[in-house]
Write a structure and sequence with these properties.
The chain has 133 residues and is α/β, with parallel strands linked by helices. The protein is built from five helices and five strands, in the order βαβαβαβαβα. A five-stranded parallel β-sheet has the order 2-1-3-4-5, sandwiched between helices. Helix 2 runs parallel beside helix 3. 27% of the residues are buried.
Length: 133
């Protein structure tokens, strides 16, 4: 049984439901938020902090990379995985790919997501990208 905790942030409720269901069945503890503001509130209330943040890159209000940067001021070692349906945009290229973060291009399967989650969680701490670089 997996005992890792994941915070998933996406403005689409259907995506959150599918990911929460699929990851919970695999033993992950999953919290979800439909906005960056809700994610910040959830994150600050969580104890212990989540092992991984999965955030959509493009969301109304605050983007996923901006959210990640904000949460990393609270938890500098937070591991981050982005997801986006717009994998070739300048925002994705500049704030995700060029900074070395992992990216899941939508659409993806829950099985593929689980493989990527394991890779991100098992990466050496030195390989965890700093959002300020």
């Amino acid at each position: 049984m997996n005992n890792r905790t994941i915070l998933i942030v996406d403005d689409e409720a259907d995506i959150l439901r599918v990911l929460e269901r699929g990851l919970t069945q695999d033993g992950f503890h999953v919290k979800t938020a439909r906005s960056a503001d809700a994610a910040i509130q959830t994150f600050t209330a969580m104890s212990p902090r989540p092992d991984l943040l999965i955030a959509d890159v493009v969301m109304p209000g605050m983007s996923g990379p901006m959210l990640a940067e904000r949460l990393r001021t609270i938890e500098p070692g937070l591991r981050i995985l982005f997801m986006s349906g717009y994998d070739s945009t300048n925002v994705v290229r500049r704030y995700v790919v060029e900074r070395g973060f992992s990216l899941m291009a939508k659409p993806f399967t829950v099985a593929a997501l689980k493989v990527t989650i394991q890779a991100v969680l098992e990466a050496p701490k030195a390989a965890v990208q700093e959002s300020g670089s």
